[in-house]
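Sequence only, no structure available. Ideas?
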Amino acid sequence: MSPTPLDASRPASGETTWHVLGAGSLGSLWAVRLARAGLPVQLILRTPQRLAAYRIAGGLRLEENGTERLYPIPAEHFDADPPIRRLLLACKAYDALPAIECLAPRLGVGAELILLQNGLGSQDAVATRLPGRRCVLASTTEGAFRAGDFRVVFAGQGHTWLGDAGRPPAWLDELAVAGIPHAWSETIHSRLWRKLALNCAINPLSVLHDCRNGGLQAHAGEVTGLCAELAELLHQCDQPAAAEDLQEEVERVIQATAANYSSMHQDVTCGRRTEIAYLLGHACREAARRKLHLPRLEALQQRLQRHLAARGLPVD
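Reply:
I predicted one. C-alpha coordinates follow.
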Protein backbone atom coordinates (compact mmCIF):
# COMPACT_ATOMS: atom_id res chain seq x y z
CA MET A 1 0.00 0.00 0.00
CA SER A 2 1.40 3.40 -0.93
CA PRO A 3 1.75 5.83 1.99
CA THR A 4 -0.90 8.46 2.71
CA PRO A 5 0.22 12.07 3.35
CA LEU A 6 0.17 11.37 7.10
CA ASP A 7 2.42 8.32 6.93
CA ALA A 8 6.20 8.38 7.09
CA SER A 9 7.78 10.05 4.08
CA ARG A 10 11.29 9.75 2.67
CA PRO A 11 13.31 12.95 2.29
CA ALA A 12 14.94 13.77 -1.01
CA SER A 13 18.52 12.62 -1.39
CA GLY A 14 20.88 14.65 0.77
CA GLU A 15 18.16 16.26 2.87
CA THR A 16 17.94 15.70 6.60
CA THR A 17 14.46 15.25 8.01
CA TRP A 18 13.33 17.62 10.73
CA HIS A 19 11.84 15.34 13.37
CA VAL A 20 9.59 17.36 15.69
CA LEU A 21 8.53 16.06 19.09
CA GLY A 22 5.89 18.23 20.70
CA ALA A 23 2.77 19.03 18.67
CA GLY A 24 1.89 21.93 20.95
CA SER A 25 2.02 25.59 20.02
CA LEU A 26 5.71 26.16 19.21
CA GLY A 27 6.44 22.67 17.88
CA SER A 28 3.48 22.91 15.51
CA LEU A 29 4.46 26.41 14.43
CA TRP A 30 7.97 25.28 13.51
CA ALA A 31 6.73 22.10 11.82
CA VAL A 32 4.27 23.98 9.60
CA ARG A 33 6.75 26.65 8.50
CA LEU A 34 9.46 24.09 7.73
CA ALA A 35 7.04 21.85 5.82
CA ARG A 36 5.52 24.59 3.71
CA ALA A 37 9.04 25.66 2.73
CA GLY A 38 9.40 22.22 1.14
CA LEU A 39 11.67 20.77 3.83
CA PRO A 40 11.11 17.19 5.04
CA VAL A 41 9.32 17.17 8.43
CA GLN A 42 8.20 14.26 10.57
CA LEU A 43 6.09 14.69 13.69
CA ILE A 44 6.65 12.27 16.55
CA LEU A 45 3.61 11.51 18.71
CA ARG A 46 3.92 9.75 22.03
CA THR A 47 1.03 7.28 22.06
CA PRO A 48 -0.86 5.24 19.46
CA GLN A 49 -4.01 7.07 20.58
CA ARG A 50 -2.47 10.47 19.78
CA LEU A 51 -1.27 9.22 16.43
CA ALA A 52 -4.77 7.89 15.62
CA ALA A 53 -6.33 11.20 16.67
CA TYR A 54 -3.86 13.09 14.50
CA ARG A 55 -4.70 10.99 11.46
CA ILE A 56 -8.42 11.60 12.04
CA ALA A 57 -7.70 15.34 12.29
CA GLY A 58 -5.93 15.15 8.94
CA GLY A 59 -2.85 17.09 10.05
CA LEU A 60 -1.96 20.32 11.80
CA ARG A 61 -4.16 23.39 11.51
CA LEU A 62 -2.50 26.79 11.76
CA GLU A 63 -4.42 30.05 12.01
CA GLU A 64 -2.37 32.95 10.75
CA ASN A 65 -3.59 36.49 10.06
CA GLY A 66 -7.18 35.33 10.55
CA THR A 67 -6.92 32.46 8.04
CA GLU A 68 -6.78 28.80 9.05
CA ARG A 69 -5.14 26.17 6.88
CA LEU A 70 -4.60 22.43 7.19
CA TYR A 71 -1.09 20.97 6.78
CA PRO A 72 -1.01 17.13 6.43
CA ILE A 73 2.50 16.70 7.84
CA PRO A 74 3.63 13.06 8.18
CA ALA A 75 3.59 11.64 11.71
CA GLU A 76 4.88 8.56 13.47
CA HIS A 77 4.96 6.98 16.91
CA PHE A 78 7.91 6.88 19.35
CA ASP A 79 8.57 3.25 18.41
CA ALA A 80 9.17 3.87 14.71
CA ASP A 81 12.44 2.48 13.40
CA PRO A 82 14.15 5.14 11.26
CA PRO A 83 17.14 6.85 12.88
CA ILE A 84 16.82 10.50 13.84
CA ARG A 85 19.58 12.82 12.68
CA ARG A 86 17.94 16.12 13.65
CA LEU A 87 15.33 16.57 16.38
CA LEU A 88 13.42 19.64 17.47
CA LEU A 89 12.43 18.88 21.06
CA ALA A 90 9.53 21.24 21.71
CA CYS A 91 7.81 19.48 24.62
CA LYS A 92 7.40 20.79 28.18
CA ALA A 93 10.56 20.91 30.30
CA TYR A 94 9.39 18.10 32.58
CA ASP A 95 8.74 15.83 29.56
CA ALA A 96 12.11 16.43 27.90
CA LEU A 97 14.21 13.76 29.62
CA PRO A 98 11.49 11.04 29.60
CA ALA A 99 10.99 11.67 25.89
CA ILE A 100 14.72 11.39 25.21
CA GLU A 101 14.89 8.15 27.19
CA CYS A 102 12.37 6.69 24.73
CA LEU A 103 14.05 8.12 21.63
CA ALA A 104 17.68 7.48 22.63
CA PRO A 105 17.98 4.25 20.57
CA ARG A 106 17.10 6.24 17.43
CA LEU A 107 19.55 9.07 18.15
CA GLY A 108 22.90 7.92 16.89
CA VAL A 109 26.23 9.56 17.64
CA GLY A 110 26.33 12.78 15.66
CA ALA A 111 22.60 13.46 15.95
CA GLU A 112 21.63 17.10 16.49
CA LEU A 113 18.94 18.31 18.90
CA ILE A 114 17.36 21.75 19.22
CA LEU A 115 16.09 22.14 22.78
CA LEU A 116 13.15 24.53 22.95
CA GLN A 117 12.20 24.31 26.65
CA ASN A 118 11.22 26.94 29.19
CA GLY A 119 13.49 27.59 32.14
CA LEU A 120 16.74 25.80 32.91
CA GLY A 121 17.71 22.34 34.07
CA SER A 122 16.09 20.11 31.48
CA GLN A 123 18.69 21.01 28.85
CA ASP A 124 21.60 19.78 30.99
CA ALA A 125 19.71 16.58 31.82
CA VAL A 126 19.17 15.83 28.12
CA ALA A 127 22.79 16.62 27.17
CA THR A 128 24.11 14.39 29.97
CA ARG A 129 21.90 11.53 28.78
CA LEU A 130 23.12 11.88 25.18
CA PRO A 131 26.93 12.17 25.07
CA GLY A 132 28.22 12.55 21.53
CA ARG A 133 25.11 14.34 20.30
CA ARG A 134 24.98 18.06 19.65
CA CYS A 135 22.44 19.86 21.85
CA VAL A 136 21.64 23.38 20.61
CA LEU A 137 19.82 25.57 23.14
CA ALA A 138 17.01 27.85 22.02
CA SER A 139 15.13 30.80 23.48
CA THR A 140 12.19 32.39 21.70
CA THR A 141 9.80 35.31 21.95
CA GLU A 142 7.41 33.95 19.33
CA GLY A 143 3.76 33.93 20.29
CA ALA A 144 1.45 30.99 19.61
CA PHE A 145 -1.26 29.17 21.51
CA ARG A 146 -3.29 26.01 21.10
CA ALA A 147 -6.89 26.53 20.04
CA GLY A 148 -7.68 22.82 20.19
CA ASP A 149 -6.18 19.44 19.42
CA PHE A 150 -3.63 19.92 16.61
CA ARG A 151 -4.90 23.50 16.11
CA VAL A 152 -2.56 26.42 16.73
CA VAL A 153 -2.97 30.18 16.44
CA PHE A 154 0.10 32.22 15.47
CA ALA A 155 -0.33 35.10 17.91
CA GLY A 156 2.70 37.25 17.22
CA GLN A 157 5.94 37.35 15.25
CA GLY A 158 8.95 37.06 17.49
CA HIS A 159 12.56 35.99 17.35
CA THR A 160 14.45 32.82 18.27
CA TRP A 161 18.03 32.74 19.51
CA LEU A 162 20.03 29.52 19.24
CA GLY A 163 23.46 28.63 20.47
CA ASP A 164 25.97 26.21 21.95
CA ALA A 165 29.73 26.09 22.33
CA GLY A 166 30.33 25.26 18.67
CA ARG A 167 30.12 26.94 15.30
CA PRO A 168 26.74 27.88 13.79
CA PRO A 169 25.26 24.81 12.04
CA ALA A 170 24.54 24.80 8.32
CA TRP A 171 20.82 24.12 8.91
CA LEU A 172 20.32 27.72 10.05
CA ASP A 173 19.92 28.44 6.33
CA GLU A 174 16.85 26.19 6.36
CA LEU A 175 15.30 28.29 9.12
CA ALA A 176 15.78 31.35 6.91
CA VAL A 177 14.10 29.56 3.99
CA ALA A 178 11.21 28.62 6.31
CA GLY A 179 10.74 32.22 7.44
CA ILE A 180 11.66 31.53 11.08
CA PRO A 181 13.33 34.71 12.43
CA HIS A 182 16.46 33.62 14.25
CA ALA A 183 20.02 34.46 15.21
CA TRP A 184 23.01 32.49 16.46
CA SER A 185 23.94 33.60 19.96
CA GLU A 186 27.29 33.05 21.63
CA THR A 187 25.62 34.13 24.89
CA ILE A 188 22.65 31.78 24.77
CA HIS A 189 22.93 30.92 28.49
CA SER A 190 22.62 34.59 29.35
CA ARG A 191 19.44 34.81 27.26
CA LEU A 192 18.00 31.72 28.94
CA TRP A 193 18.79 33.11 32.40
CA ARG A 194 17.21 36.44 31.46
CA LYS A 195 14.03 34.76 30.28
CA LEU A 196 13.95 32.60 33.44
CA ALA A 197 14.19 35.73 35.59
CA LEU A 198 11.37 37.42 33.67
CA ASN A 199 9.19 34.36 34.09
CA CYS A 200 9.97 34.10 37.82
CA ALA A 201 9.03 37.74 38.35
CA ILE A 202 5.72 37.52 36.50
CA ASN A 203 4.24 34.03 36.21
CA PRO A 204 4.01 32.93 39.87
CA LEU A 205 2.49 36.23 41.00
CA SER A 206 -0.06 36.11 38.18
CA VAL A 207 -1.14 32.70 39.50
CA LEU A 208 -1.26 33.69 43.16
CA HIS A 209 -3.17 36.91 42.46
CA ASP A 210 -5.30 35.19 39.79
CA CYS A 211 -4.87 38.05 37.35
CA ARG A 212 -3.81 38.94 33.85
CA ASN A 213 -0.25 40.20 33.55
CA GLY A 214 -1.47 43.79 33.71
CA GLY A 215 -2.98 43.12 37.12
CA LEU A 216 0.54 42.92 38.56
CA GLN A 217 0.76 46.71 38.29
CA ALA A 218 -1.28 46.73 41.49
CA HIS A 219 1.45 44.65 43.18
CA ALA A 220 4.45 46.76 42.19
CA GLY A 221 6.14 46.33 45.57
CA GLU A 222 6.24 42.54 45.25
CA VAL A 223 7.55 42.79 41.69
CA THR A 224 10.28 45.22 42.72
CA GLY A 225 11.41 43.01 45.60
CA LEU A 226 11.56 39.91 43.42
CA CYS A 227 13.50 41.71 40.69
CA ALA A 228 16.12 42.82 43.22
CA GLU A 229 16.65 39.26 44.47
CA LEU A 230 16.65 37.80 40.97
CA ALA A 231 19.27 40.33 39.87
CA GLU A 232 21.39 39.35 42.87
CA LEU A 233 21.08 35.68 41.90
CA LEU A 234 22.06 36.39 38.30
CA HIS A 235 25.20 38.21 39.42
CA GLN A 236 26.12 35.30 41.70
CA CYS A 237 25.60 32.90 38.76
CA ASP A 238 28.06 34.93 36.64
CA GLN A 239 25.29 36.31 34.44
CA PRO A 240 25.65 40.09 34.89
CA ALA A 241 24.29 40.87 31.41
CA ALA A 242 21.08 38.99 32.25
CA ALA A 243 20.68 41.12 35.38
CA GLU A 244 21.08 44.48 33.64
CA ASP A 245 17.92 46.64 33.88
CA LEU A 246 15.90 43.57 34.86
CA GLN A 247 13.16 45.44 36.70
CA GLU A 248 12.67 47.87 33.81
CA GLU A 249 12.22 45.01 31.36
CA VAL A 250 9.84 43.16 33.69
CA GLU A 251 7.71 46.29 33.88
CA ARG A 252 7.80 46.65 30.07
CA VAL A 253 6.68 43.04 29.62
CA ILE A 254 3.85 43.50 32.13
CA GLN A 255 2.63 46.54 30.22
CA ALA A 256 3.08 45.02 26.77
CA THR A 257 1.21 41.83 27.74
CA ALA A 258 -1.26 43.47 30.13
CA ALA A 259 -4.29 41.76 28.55
CA ASN A 260 -2.69 38.30 28.53
CA TYR A 261 -2.70 35.52 31.09
CA SER A 262 0.76 34.06 31.71
CA SER A 263 1.47 30.52 30.51
CA MET A 264 1.66 29.33 34.12
CA HIS A 265 -1.72 30.90 34.89
CA GLN A 266 -3.19 29.11 31.85
CA ASP A 267 -1.70 25.80 32.99
CA VAL A 268 -3.15 26.12 36.50
CA THR A 269 -6.55 27.22 35.18
CA CYS A 270 -6.67 24.16 32.90
CA GLY A 271 -5.48 21.81 35.65
CA ARG A 272 -2.17 21.10 33.93
CA ARG A 273 1.21 20.54 35.49
CA THR A 274 3.33 23.71 35.58
CA GLU A 275 7.04 24.09 34.86
CA ILE A 276 7.73 25.47 38.36
CA ALA A 277 10.68 23.10 38.86
CA TYR A 278 12.52 24.58 35.87
CA LEU A 279 11.67 28.22 36.60
CA LEU A 280 11.24 29.24 40.23
CA GLY A 281 12.52 25.89 41.46
CA HIS A 282 15.72 26.17 39.43
CA ALA A 283 16.32 29.69 40.71
CA CYS A 284 15.87 28.59 44.33
CA ARG A 285 18.12 25.54 43.87
CA GLU A 286 20.90 27.67 42.40
CA ALA A 287 20.57 30.16 45.26
CA ALA A 288 20.76 27.34 47.83
CA ARG A 289 23.78 25.83 46.10
CA ARG A 290 25.56 29.16 46.53
CA LYS A 291 24.28 29.59 50.11
CA LEU A 292 22.51 32.74 48.93
CA HIS A 293 19.54 33.74 51.11
CA LEU A 294 16.76 35.19 48.99
CA PRO A 295 13.73 35.36 51.33
CA ARG A 296 11.21 36.77 48.84
CA LEU A 297 12.03 34.18 46.21
CA GLU A 298 11.94 31.34 48.74
CA ALA A 299 8.61 32.53 50.18
CA LEU A 300 7.17 32.85 46.67
CA GLN A 301 8.10 29.26 45.86
CA GLN A 302 6.48 28.01 49.08
CA ARG A 303 3.29 30.03 48.44
CA LEU A 304 3.07 28.72 44.89
CA GLN A 305 3.64 25.13 45.97
CA ARG A 306 0.85 25.40 48.54
CA HIS A 307 -1.42 26.91 45.89
CA LEU A 308 -0.69 24.05 43.47
CA ALA A 309 -1.11 21.37 46.14
CA ALA A 310 -4.50 22.78 47.12
CA ARG A 311 -5.61 22.25 43.54
CA GLY A 312 -4.23 18.74 43.30
CA LEU A 313 -1.41 19.74 40.95
CA PRO A 314 2.24 18.61 41.19
CA VAL A 315 4.44 20.97 43.20
CA ASP A 316 7.61 20.19 41.24
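The chain has twelve helices and twelve strands.
Hope that gets you unstuck.
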